[in-house]
Amino acid sequence: xxxxxxxxxxxxxxxxxxxxxxxxxxxxLPGLVARKIYPGSLLxxxxxxxxxxxxxxxxxxxxxxxxxxAKMLSDAGYNIIVNREGANxxxxxxxxxxxxxxxxxxIDCDFAILEVDEASIPAVxxxxxxxxxxxxxxxxxxxxxxxxxDKIIGIIRDSxxxxxxxxxxLNADDPLVAQFRKTTGLTSxxxxxxxxxxxxxxxxxxxxxxxxxxxxxPLSYDYFHYGQLGNYNCTGCGFERPLPRIEALEPATTAxxxxxxxxxxxxxxxxxxxxxxxxxxxxxxxxxxxxLHLGLDIRTLLDSLYKYNPVAGRMERFNYYGKPAFxxxxxxxxxxxxxxxxxHAVKGTIDIFIAINDNEADGRDIxxxxxxxxxxxxxxxxxxxxxxxxGRRGEEMAxxxxxxxxxxxxxxxxxxxxxxxKKTLAxxxxxxxxxxxxxxxxxxxxxxxxxxxxxxxxxxxxSSIS
Amino acid sequence: MISVCHLYPDLLNxxxxxxxxxxxxxxxxxxxxxxxxxxxxxxxxxxxxEHDFVFIGGGSDREQNLIAADLMKRKExxxxxxxxxxxxxxxxxxxxxxxxxxxxxxxxxxPGLGVMDFITRxxxxxxxxxxxxxxxxxxxxxxxxxxxxxxxxxxxxxxxPLGKVLSGNGNNGADSLEGVRYKNVFCSYLHGPLLPKNPxxxxxxxxxxxxxxxxxxxxTPLDDNFEDRACMAIMRRLGFKxxxxxxxxxxxx
Lengths: 466, 253
Ligand SMILES: [Zn+2]
Hints:
By secondary structure, chain A is of the alpha/beta class.
């Protein structure tokens, strides 16, 4: 049995280098190969983790949250394993362990931090017993694969319910996430964002939960942050937003990121991160609560968080001859709406680039673009100088903007991603914002890196991405 | 004033279908035709006679059941309005609701509104992907593109299909038919959404709605460059070179 593990590790590593040399990122193939040779590969290696395995899942923010946790834990001196971005199904998770294992079949790891695709949770927890599971939020995503949100949530609930000693870290503001305390019966801690000045009394169309998950009565809201996130209560059974263990108050967007005060253990501390957008604040809260639960000191954690630099495409900041350019991944209405909210917070003019692909990993159905609130851009058109639409479905993006009321002379269709990015960066505006779906993100990232300098915090530590 | 009624926008809001209402409204506005949109949800009162165009989209199972019950209470008025030529576009779940019944995998029959003669059965596999159909719009053969995503399979009785499937599955993946057309009711499985990138169909709906109002006249042409390019992005991939043209469609069922 042991020999098969060694062979599996070796074969996995060879597969990694082979696929690397062919220009692939080599993220799922090694795991796939190893599992073929020895199906128990992940089970064996994961059981060697000394302290805890942390699983992070949910629709948006998985990658950022796990990278923030990784940053805080490695700053604290622990040996960690993190799976690579996009490698969040069982084969990708296996890859991360294979790549960290020595040829003697051993791993040297205190904590494994695993971003896991929602639909892969049953398969992963069947082999890996998590000490902590953090859930970010639930939105519709790639509907042609996961056609109903209810179904996906049910699958996750069923696979978590069988765990006995796992702690859940849950978003208090999302009723679809908060329900997990009751539905799984597991010990749960909550994080949330308090009411602030831009909290809305109503929510736009992209709202997933209208009814109580327990009794079916309509949920009533005090305020919304975005989507179905806010302060809710059920008129039927009393289900309501749980009291958060950590709560962010009065978040404010700054040039460099986001600042807020944080209510924790009956006292207020301040939290600052180098990423814009309320969704990034939620990611930071989730990551922070995971680490607090592990017993780390809040001061040290806040310090680490502040040094965290956003990973590729999470409002990643570049500098193009003195002009700031930001790159964001978009994959569903809630995420894109948050990106648009960031545009509204910018002072000065903006050139905008949007790349839409419809490959398998993007979701082949792009009709979700019509659920994004591009209409709100209409209120502020003088700030938005140009919209360059690219990717396999750039034409549909351009059409969406036209029907949102953007003047057509500001909309440009350029299939070629490189010339589209060049045009955007060379635009007249004071800053450039680039949005891209998943499979276009790496090509876009590569091109932007060639054309513009990446901005990194000065006191940057070694990247925590394995 | 053209009056648009969007049924259950808060519940039947999967797959960007509200883009259909956006397209209808914009193309009226761009031509200077005054248009109002009213959103109707559960328990709201509605007089279908006051409206010129009604849109109903698709939703998840739970929401669809709620709506079936609510719509049932409005059945008589709805049926009457359909017979009088109300222009309706129903997509996916909204489409299924208008038929005789939906037969679930457990063999349970969920009655529909029964305003048209077709039935839907739960299928074994989900029909998902880009679709191109050919349909007749004002005597002209037009290719229409969209994205389907349904597990229900619809079989037509005594009613006409919306068009013929050229690529994709359509109603059931077996008989090459897509959607239903009855009087001024247009039903389809095509999301995408359907109307924005198929402007000839949108304009046809606007025309017949105006005509019914006694405001009929030739619509001012619009620049459809973006619309056609978005449609061609799907069509070219599936091997089609032109949106219009081909043989004039005749002898349909
Ligand atoms: Zn309730």
